[in-house]
Specification:
Helices cover about 30% and strands about 15% of the residues. By secondary structure, it is an alpha/beta fold. An eight-stranded parallel beta sheet has the order 2-1-3-8-7-4-5-6, sandwiched between helices. The longest helix is centred in the last third of the chain and has 19 residues, at about 300-315.
């Protein structure tokens, strides 16, 4: 877990974080894939740190993504027994050291404490040489993470799966539909080498900062041709992957706040993520899983499976495929 005060957690960054002495949603039931729990970043041997961000106060649709980290971790129990995930030729834990830092603590009802605590926590991880995998929470949580990543690595190439561009310039200070507008304004992403996939809601075409392969085009192209476009766009840059679960069609991910029909299939999404193997992936997130609207853990399982596939893509860079 990532509780405060520091007396309860030696890795707490007391001087940089807002007080969160009563975190309502930070309790940890199990770790992702039963990986070890990280309690001290300074002694961590992990290559990748997993963490949850149980925040959904920036959502414009149905709330409930605060329970996403819990749902994804719980659903990961269905994936543990495989050992080596098909179709990969190696077992993840033979190549990649993974630890779970639990859930970020912040004062519920005070969004700025989420921003401050998450940026400080993510900064500590990336400055410690860790790759990161965060579970949302709504998509707003990606913005503080990108600030931490960009401070360490400079602007990253963004590979963004979503039904929405999230580049809208309206909304409040805390809004899951405006985060990539702010990321562009703040220079956190390299727009000339970033791409958005699965978009199927309206956005301003003139001056849009990202290349877009919308859902209709992507479904016609298929994973192989889509991957060619992604690789041409990213062109060897350091990469951040952000996967909003509503990029999937609601048939595959009903448990989310703003579902949109005619999205990607799970098979298509997994094939694209597998094809990212070998890229310089610095950070990842899976956001907007809202288990309350789910059935039989369909969306939570989708989120856990996508996250595991991302980790295999990272591991493939260290292991001959």
């Amino acid at each position: 877990m990532y509780p405060t005060p520091a007396a309860q957690n030696p890795m707490a960054i007391a001087s940089a974080t807002a007080n969160a002495d009563m975190p309502l949603y930070s309790a940890l039931g199990m770790t992702f894939m039963q990986c070890p729990l990280m309690t001290d970043i300074h002694h961590s041997q992990a290559d990748v740190i997993v963490a949850g961000v149980p925040f959904d106060m920036a959502t414009s649709g149905r709330p409930g993504a605060r329970f996403g980290p819990q749902g994804v971790r719980q659903a990961s129990a269905n994936l543990i027994w495989e050992g080596r995930r098909w179709p990969w030729t190696f077992a993840l834990d033979d190549v990649l050291k993974l630890e779970d830092a639990g859930n970020l603590a912040f004062r519920h009802g005070e969004p700025q404490t989420l921003v401050d605590n998450l940026e400080a926590f993510a900064s500590a991880l990336v400055q410690g040489g860790k790759k990161t995998l965060f579970f949302g929470g709504d998509h707003f949580v990606t913005l503080p993470i990108l600030r931490a990543q960009a401070r360490q690595h400079g602007p990253l190439a963004l590979i963004h799966f979503d039904a929405h561009t999230d580049t809208y310039d309206g909304g409040s200070q805390y809004d899951h539909g405006t985060l990539f507008h702010h990321a562009v304004v703040e220079g956190l992403v390299d727009t000339e080498h970033s791409i958005q996939l699965g978009i199927r809601t309206a956005y301003e075409l003139d001056g849009h900062p990202f290349e877009v392969i919308d859902a209709a085009e992507l479904n016609d192209l298929g994973p192989a041709a889509t991957l060619t476009r992604i690789r041409q766009r990213v062109a060897g840059r350091p990469v951040y992957i952000s996967f909003d679960i509503d990029a999937l069609d609601p048939a595959f991910a009903p448990g989310t706040g703003t579902p949109v029909s005619a999205g990607l299939s799970m098979d298509c999404a997994l094939k694209i993520i597998r094809g990212l193997a070998g890229m310089d992936i610095r950070g990842m997130d899976v956001v907007e899983v809202a288990p309350a609207y789910d059935h039989a853990e369909i969306t939570s399982l989708a989120g856990a499976t996508l996250a595991l596939e991302m980790l295999y893509a990272v591991a493939a860079g260290k292991h001959p495929v």
